[in-house]
Amino acid sequence: MILQLQEATDYIQQRIENFAPEFGIILGTGLGALVNELEVNHTISYDEIPYFPVSTVESHSGKLIFGLLAGRRVVVMQGRFHYYEGYSMEQVVFPVRVMRLLGVQKLFVSNAAGGLNPDFTTSELMIITDHINLQPSNPLIGKNLDELGLRFPDMSDVYDEHMVREAMVIGDDLGITLQEGVYVSVPGPMLETPAEYRYLRVIGADAVGMSTVPEVIAARHMGMPVFAVSVITDMCTPDRLKKVKLADILEAAAIAEPRMTALIAELIRRS
Ligand code: HPA
Question: How is the quaternary structure described (predicted)?
Answer without folding.
Answer: Homotrimer.
